[in-house]
Each structure stands twice: as structure tokens, then as C-alpha cells.
Here is the input.
Amino acid sequence: MKTIKVVAAIIKKDDKILIAQRLKGEFAGQWEFPGGKIEEGEHPEEALIREIMEEMELEISINEYLMTAEYDYPNFHLSMDCYICSLKTDIIQLHDHSAIQWISIKDNIKNINWIPADIQIIEALQTKFN
Here is the structure.
């Protein structure tokens, strides 16, 4: 099975994290942590900074590595490096998402319609911050 390497930003502000709703594709309408594919020869942190700028016109600082989420979709294996980040700028311009929201990690956020691979990130965040 083909492996796709991606990165995701857990953008934290006070006790809230930023989530984004997919605009198009197979998972349109579902919620995720923003990010995207790592290009050939690109370091994961570089990819994350680039992807967040492309998707949201946001400048971020990467604070720490959280985890690598592994998930098998029907046609490929996803390997997603996840980083806790903070904002350098806070004006958001959406290009690949229909909406964003700031949610509390302490709330019951498992009820959100998550993209399947992102559910394990929620569990890791709740363990880390609760």
C-alpha cells in the first residue's frame, strides 16, 4: 500500500486549539487539523510552515512535536507528523477550508465530525493537556 507523508498543525492559543472544516474532496464538511503533504526533499517542519501559509495565510511558530499519527485508508496509508504550534500572526484567510473554530481540549470534542486520521490526535491532546 502506498504511504503518503503529511504534517498537521495543532495551533494552540490559550486553552483553545484551531480546527478547520474541509472545503472539498472526499472529506468535505469534516473537521481536521490544518496541514498538508510533505514535498520531496522537504523537512516536515518546513512543510508545515509552508502549508499553513498556503491554506490560511498564517505565520506559525512550531513549539514541539506531539506525535506521528498512522492511519490506513482504503487506498493508501497516511503517516502524519503532528506539531503543537502558536501564531505569529492572527489574521486568517481561508483557501482550502470552509470554516474554522477554536475549541477547548477539555470539552467533549469527540462529538465533532472529524476526518478519521485526526481522532487519534484528539486522544493524544486530551492525555497531554487534561
Observations:
- The first helix runs from residue 44 to 56.
- Helices lie at 44-56, 119-129.
- DSSP finds two helices and seven strands in the chain.
- The beta strands are 3-13, 16-22, 31-32, 35-37, 60-72, 77-87, 97-104.
